[in-house]
Design goal:
Strand content: 25-35%
Number of helices: 4
Number of strands: 7
Low-confidence stretches: 54-58
Helix content: 25-40%
Structural class: alpha+beta
CATH topology of the largest domain: PH-domain like
Mean pLDDT: 84
Distance between the termini: 41 Å
Strand order of the largest sheet: 1-2-3-4
CATH architecture of the largest domain: Roll
Largest sheet: 4 strands, antiparallel
Radius of gyration: 20 Å
CATH class of the largest domain: Mainly Beta
CATH superfamily of the largest domain: Pleckstrin-homology domain (PH domain)/Phosphotyrosine-binding domain (PTB)
Length: 177
């Protein structure tokens, strides 16, 4: 179920609750009432997401890249998802999918060619977005981290990690023309 579908279901339940109660909303005009329902549904979705345990690590100390062990720079999951987990380390992007059974996809940061992030209007209201990673990974050259909370911050974490990984391993990319 998508974020928009979930929000539509919440809105429908709010409208249903208003209709089933003895609450007098006749003093409110239609646009004010619709704005109120939108606000309640967005607040409910944000509260549901925070209860599901989103984690963002945004402060990255400079010395984290200096040692030989793999350090986690950011962990998170798509908004309202319990079966998909994203992890960005100083070496790779790891996507873990599944609730009972697990499958993992790894993309080494030195193989990343391009990063982009995008937000629709409704995603901007909720501070969500998608990050697209294009790489030289043979299994899946294009992956999208969907419905990420604070996508601009995560994009910057990933961009800096890619640049540091390239520098650490002495890799440079030449674009083909």
């Amino acid at each position: 179920m998508s974020v928009d579908d979930t929000q539509a279901r919440i809105k429908a339940r709010v409208w249903q609750a208003i209709a089933q109660t003895d609450l007098d909303v006749s003093a409110l005009d239609k646009s004010t009432l619709e704005s109120l329902v939108d606000l309640v549904s967005e607040a409910a979705m944000l509260d549901i997401d925070s209860e599901m345990g989103a984690v963002i690590k945004s402060a990255i100390p400079d010395d984290i890249f200096d040692d030989e062990k793999e350090d986690i720079l950011w962990e998170g999951r798509p908004f309202l998802s319990i079966s998909l987990q994203y992890t960005i380390t100083d070496e790779r992007i790891r996507i873990t999918e599944g609730f009972l059974g697990k499958s993992r996809e790894n993309v080494e940061l030195i193989r990343v060619q391009d990063l982009d992030y995008s937000q629709t209007f409704s995603e901007r209201l909720l501070n969500l977005g998608d990050i697209t990673v294009r790489s030289h990974d043979s299994s899946d050259p294009r992956i999208t981290l969907k419905n990420i909370k604070d996508p601009e911050a995560v994009y910057e974490i990933l961009r800096k990690a890619v640049l540091r990984a390239r520098k650490k391993h002495g890799f440079t990319y030449r674009e083909e023309m």
